[in-house]
Specification:
heterodimer; A: 186 residues; alpha+beta; Glycoprotein, Type 4 Pilin; four-stranded antiparallel sheet; three-stranded antiparallel sheet; 4 helices; 11% strand; B: 500 residues; alpha/beta; Alkaline Phosphatase, subunit A; 13 helices; 13% strand; globular
Amino acid sequence: MKKLWAVVIAVAVIVGIYFLENRNSTPMNPAARGTVSGNNSSEPAVPEISGTAPAILSAGTGANTGTDLAARAASPNSTPATNELPSLPPLTVLDNARLAIHGYNAAFGENPVGNNAEITAALTGKNPKQINFINAESGLRVDANGEMVDGYGTPLFFHQLSGQEMEIRSAGEDRKLWTFDDQVTR
Amino acid sequence: MNEKNISVITRRQFLRRVGCAAMGTAAMTAAIRDLRFMNAAVAQSNITDYKALVCIFLQGGNDSNNLVVPTVPSEYNNYAAIRTPILALPAGSLQTLDGYTDPAGHTYGLHPACPELKTLFSEGKLAILLNTGTLVYPITRTTYLNGTGSKPPQLFSHADQQTQWQTSVPDQPPTTGWGGRCADLLNSVNVNAPISLSVSLAGANTFEIGNIVSQYSVSTSGAISLAGVSGARLAALTNLLGLSYPNMQAQAYAGVAAHSINTGALLNNAITNSAPTNFWTNPFPTIITTPNGGGSFGSSLSSQLKMIARLIEAGNRAAGSPTNGFGMRRQIFFCQVGGYDLHTGQTNYTATNPNNVILGAHANLFADLSQSLLVFQRAMEQLGLQNKVTAFTASDFGRTFPCNGQGSDHGWGSHHLIVGGAGATNGGSVAGGKTYGTFPTLTVNGPDDTGTGRWIPTTAIDQYFGTIATWFGVDSGNLATVFPNLGRFATPNLGFMNPS
């Protein structure tokens, strides 16, 4: 009997360790690999973001409307519990933005239109079916202006090439668009 | 029994039946539209004079906020405050449209790189249409923001807005361009024309797609011929194509290839005399130099417009020996200049050289446009066709009024140019020397703004192009066929074209 208890405890410890390790890891979506280009071959560390921390977009299946988003963005105190989630590498965050656009396109047959704030609102519920295309694990965040920011805290730039093709640009580590370290995906 | 049968129709069966019905309806609609075009074309066949349209497409979305700048001090100060420092043109650098005040009390200056456009405006040969863009119905800031106004699909997207500008039917899938529909309607007046009514200097385009008339592409040096085939090789190929082939597909291919070669040879022969530089009183520039100390560069637009001028000269010339012209009555041309998508590098402004705001990529594009348009207009005057040829600009969209830090982003409404005529005081075809439409209130979150300095158009491109098409010969009974949405807007004719 003692041996049985020892085995049970040992299994519980192993499962616990495994769970904790998985929680701290940041697996990259296989679909995301190889689609993001940037001038830096290695991913830079995420710098500390000064000022009001952007809110991490919460998971949802339609409950999160653009109005909710704007209200939440305007109120730092309402940062959801998902803020506890770890930051993802900037390239992963950028690619998750691409996947969100693809998800919108799959649902509606075309990309969302407008500037960053309008596209962010569309991706987070202000769309005909009130679908939220951003999940909590994506690392995508919105700033006080309702704009989706990259992994460095700078608003993404959405360049609408056509109704089916969107170029998404991150300002990169220097936080300035159209410089050598910009990261771009489609 | 029947009720039972109806009740057991599966979803898949229902969709299949609906799909078949939809396809049948679409085919019938297209057939009716084609029949309407055929009937209309017959009705339009009483035209005997010559006219040509030249569409100059500014690809990428032109920042017309710096093409036409308000000069009333309070308005200029507002302009400069918002566009500073990267995009704010100094007041003293503007090509002011002296002596002109629009009905709303606005005065204007053009970009410093556009002295030629100022000349054309002062001669009454340039009209400016303010804040025009794609619209499904009239829309206001209120109805835009609350979602009750119908917006063109995929606003701010390059490819979609280019297509919508060229079809002028933003709310339907693109099938034909409005130039192509005009060509379909008027093609019958070109009796035995050796080349197509629709000619493109920029390859395949949506503007000239028609149901009946196919666009014919030429290069800036003439007809596009088979590479590496000339002399004895060409003679041998021509002989081979002239043979009879038992295979119908081979026979048809030989016929098309032979026709293409013959048409190319005919075209190149017809434009030979206008090739030399000295044929033109005002030679088309091959190198453009941007004023105010800007750089020099080769001009694509000037080369395209020169070929168009040569094709107009040949098209208007009587057919047959000894003139060997085309004897055409209507021609439509399309040319295009890229590079207007200036999110970055729009000007050469730097903190140490702030005066360089009047130089840079946008200034170069405007210098090219301005100088090329003046020379083209002078060429039409030399040919005596100034009242018979109208050139006009189009572009994806305007751009955001506030600076993005290095340039401007995608907008909506924008200002456009119509060039031609003998001058407003001489009864010219273009009622130039004036602006048309309404200048937007240059205020972010103002009455004309979607929210980020993107102007909501107050004039639809349907009105813009409908006015041009009416001058071109599309009669009032057929206008709705070419521009099906035109009836949604209060003023179908904006008045910038005089009958001629």
